[in-house]
Design brief:
With 175 residues, the chain is of the alpha/beta class. Helices cover 38% and strands 19% of the residues. The chain has one domain (7-174): Leucine Aminopeptidase, subunit E, domain 1. It is built from 5 helices and 6 strands, in the order ββααββαβαβα. Strands 1-6-5-2-4-3 form a 6-stranded mixed beta sheet, sandwiched between helices. The longest helix is centred in the middle third of the chain and has 18 residues, at 98-115. The model has no long low-confidence stretch (mean pLDDT 96). Bound molecules: adenosine-5'-diphosphate.
């Protein structure tokens, strides 16, 4: 199969309302739920997602999912076939963790390819509780998707507020 460069689309809204083949979760390494996107996905998707996360913790990911890695579960009641959980880096002033944030996008798309997913919705990973400045996160996310070697046809960034939407729109326009 030939490689497809994904179309990047932007939506302002709640990622748990999206219809897509896969929805990416900005998880934490415990895989056992948290706030922000993670909490919303588990609330709306129902207990099946957490049950699969627990099974992953009991098998492959006894120590948790490493930062920058990605793994899939069911999407439960969400309008998607899969949730792809990835753990963004916590932003640091002292240390450049950009490669890990890029890795989240690359690894999530790799998992999407393994699942045969063609439309994938991403939140602005690391920009909430993990404190990453929005414009910089947008730059890293958009570059990582553009550089990814993937069969995914649409990457949809679902931005929760106007600031996030503007940052991603600006990045797409200027690159
Ligand atoms: P992280 O821990 O990776 O920073 P968060 O979930 O705290 O993840 O936040 C990531 C981004 O997702 C933030 O910009 C936040 O405003 C946004 N966000 C929170 N809830 C939702 C939602 N339901 N849909 C889309 N984006 C959301």
């Amino acid at each position: 199969m030939t490689q497809v460069v994904p179309d990047i689309t932007l939506v302002r809204g709640d990622i748990t309302e999206q219809h897509a083949d896969a929805i990416v979760n900005a998880a934490n390494s415990s895989l056992l739920g948290g706030g922000g996107v993670d909490g919303a996905i588990h609330r709306r998707g129902g207990p099946e997602i957490l049950a699969e996360c627990r099974a992953l913790r009991a098998s492959h990911y006894g120590k948790g999912l490493p930062t920058g890695a990605a793994v899939a579960t069911t999407a439960g009641r969400l309008h998607a076939a899969h949730v792809i959980h990835t753990v963004g880096p916590v932003w640091s002033r002292e240390e450049d963790r950009s490669a890990l944030l890029a890795s989240c996008h690359r690894e999530a798309l790799k998992v999407a390819d393994q699942l045969g997913a063609r439309t994938v919705a991403f939140p602005a990973i690391s920009t909430g509780a993990y404190g990453w400045p929005m414009a910089d996160a947008a730059r890293i996310a958009v570059e990582a998707v553009r550089d990814a070697n993937t069969h995914v046809e649409e990457v949809r960034f679902v931005l929760f507020d106007e600031e996030a939407y503007r940052a991603f729109a600006e990045r797409i326009r200027s690159s």
